[in-house]
Amino acid sequence: MNNENSVNLRNQVRERYAGIARNEGGCCSTTASCGGDNDYSRKLGYSAEELAALPEGAELGLGCGNPTAIAALSRGETVLDLGSGAGVDCFLAARAVGESGRVIGVDMTAEMLSRARSNALKGGYSNVEFRLGEIEHLPVADATVDVILSNCVINLSTDKQQVFREAYRVLKSGGRLAISDIVALQPLPEAIRADVSHYTGCVAGAALVNDVEQMLQQVGFSSIRVKPREASRAVIRDMAGERGIEDYIASADIEAIKP
Predict the structure, then answer these.
(1) End-to-end CA, the chain
(2) C-beta of residue 85 within 8 angstroms of C-beta of residue 62
């Protein structure tokens, strides 16, 4: 993909999610209606107790899993959320790491940051901060993070390996990835890949499982695990608003460690 196309796609992704933050659209495809629905969120892996503890407006139904469920967070850890949206996973992580811990959310959409910061104030999350930035160029210092979370965001990047390079850079030695993302189970048809609405809707940018594993390995990660969640495929079909798409993509738990 040339630089001009990459920039155009990034701008369209930014505008779509800015619109969602302004309550101007749904979270996924033009036909899906998943945003903020608790039933949808529970299908993704959030418990009723977790959802009840969140500030109103934090969960917009933008994810494809629950990365905090696989992160095994501990008190005092520093957590970074790539593409933090309205803050749902940051707030769940903040509860897990406690007052001695710290959570940083990074998002490229100013409207989402404004919403997340408002949610943090409403919920009294003093150990959470939100920064404007792109996940390919993180506004975070080297080797300062224990755990990186991300939820259905890396598939939206046109340079996924650069995202993983940045993740490796900011993690401490022994730091770990706990990511929920859309992956491709087989090559997507060209008609889907060429559809911008499918790209901004977390479908067309999905990388093949083997490609994700290779990118992580080439960056330097070890103990790599990319596990598609079979149960997610029906949810993905509803999210994408297109029957049959579940034959090509699924939500996956992605884990790795920086040696």
Answers:
(1) 31
(2) yes
